[in-house]
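User: Structure please.
Assistant: Input sequence and predicted structure:
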Amino acid sequence: MRTLTTIARGAYLARRLASRKRADCTTLQQALDEGLKLYKWDGKSPNPLVDALHYVCGTLGGIPGAVDEWADNLKKADSAMSAAAEALNFKTSDRRGSFGTMAYGTSYGGGQKRPGLLCHSKHNLSILQHLMADRSIQRIVSFQSSVFAFYAPKLYRDYATNMDALHQKYPELKYNWRTSVFPAVSFNFGPRAVTVEHRDHGNRAVGWCAITAGGNYDPRLGGHLILRELGIVIEFPPGATICIPSACLTHGNVPIRDGETRWSITQYAAGGLFRFVDYGFRTWAQLKQAGNGLADKVLEERDGRWLKELELLSKIEELHADRENAGLLK
């Protein structure tokens, strides 16, 4: 698994690596000229991403249920996203691209003493909560979490165990939706939400980021998902969901054409949340102050901890058994 070289010591986060020099989105022709292989995907058929060691390291999740029904849900989500984008007050563009984006949920990092909710103005908070209550949006995020559970059952169960513990310790923190295990979500409103190639190094290193695309664009000509280390560029139709380890894989989108629109919804988890729980709900400084050899034990285990994290991924031939053992099959 080549992406393991990007994991930071301790294996909670990915290493911050130098960004690619290209400031704009990579075009499809540029990606092909650089040796990436085009994967033509209909956006409906599930297809796990399996490495040479048989680990499922991501998946093309497809869509749930009937095509026509999901297309109708996507239209409703498109209207909800458009209405929210009109009402929100955006301060700056995201570092990943020139489009309006808002994140919501539980965060930890950047010197925080403990995990907390991402802050918003009263106006924006009201708009975001209204968007999150929309049934079409709830169906999307629920499906994202279901895809995660189906293809990474051990990792999913680990998320649930850690988030449940965090919420019990701090009752003001809670799931964004009762049907999703992810602690954070980003709404990328567009109208041309395509990202330059990047890694989300603050996310959990082996964790998955669930991405659902929407809008009105031709997926054969733009909106593709580039996975640089895997050497592929994937057609990413509106309505489809893909899960990837966004902290370790360099990823981005092919630009869409003038006059087209694209938005996306992503769910993810900060790696620091799991570290905070593992440290007994303490920062590293607090752990050292606690004594009792706790910090020394962490240091002893740090360099080999990535092996423990790797075992949370399922091998393709063990997926069914892992689903049963995780209690995800009825």
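The CA atoms of residues 27 and 176 lie 35 Å apart.
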